[in-house]
Amino acid sequence: MELSLYYAPLTCALIPYVTLTEAGAAFEVRNLNTRANQHRTPEFLALNPKHKVPVLVIDGEPLTENVAIQIWIARRFPGAKLLPEDPWQEIRAISLIAWFASTLHPHLTPNARPENYCDLPDSAEAVRRVARRLLMEDFAVADTVLSGREWLFDHFTAPDAYLFWCLRRARSFGLDLSGFPNCSAHFDRMLLRSSVQKVLVHEKQIQDAFARAA
Predict the structure, then answer these.
(1) Crossing angle, helix 181-191 and helix 158-172, to 10 degrees?
(2) Domain with CATH 3.40.30.10 in the chain
(3) Helices (H), the chain
(4) For the segment 26-50, what is each residue's pLDDT rounded down to a tens digit?
(5) I need a labelling partner for 161 at 20 to 30 A (CA). Which of 61, 149, 170, 196 fits?
(6) Rounded distance, CA 109 to CA 11, Å?
(7) Three-class SS of residue 119?
């Protein structure tokens, strides 16, 4: 089986990079410079007309959207236990991944591209302010879920990778997350995992390469 992951720095393509690494999967990384619009080339649009990463190409067939990608990885590599084995807990884990993808993640995006949400003059800060209020509500929920726990379930699972990316992206916008101590502790634990360290090294290398090529 041949696996290729289309990856761009800072994006949620970090999530399958982490879970594929946790699973011990052999995969090729194909780096995209979104600032150079490489995600809008005809070649990439043929794989994903939604012009987004991640895309996981499995024996030549593209799979998009993190919810589906995480379920596929967990099923293909069951030994990694990327979803809980108990059926009810497994469904709860998928529910959390879906919540991150459909709620928390979209509340992050206006911080980077407020013009996509309102094109009125001088509206950017108002868009960010509303998004940040919603994010604080989201992180409060996540902090409660993590109360008294190291991970979202009894051991590391795919939802932990998604939450890590959300926390990392929020920090990149300078958001103050000190009011969520359980989330902060989870973030620090994730930084200790070799899978996370590997993707962060890779990301720094390609960011430097893209900068040199600019």
Answers:
(1) 110
(2) 3-80+195-213
(3) 14-22, 42-47, 66-76, 87-99, 105-112, 124-145, 158-172, 181-191, 194-213
(4) 999 999 999 999 999 999 999 999 9
(5) 61
(6) 10
(7) coil
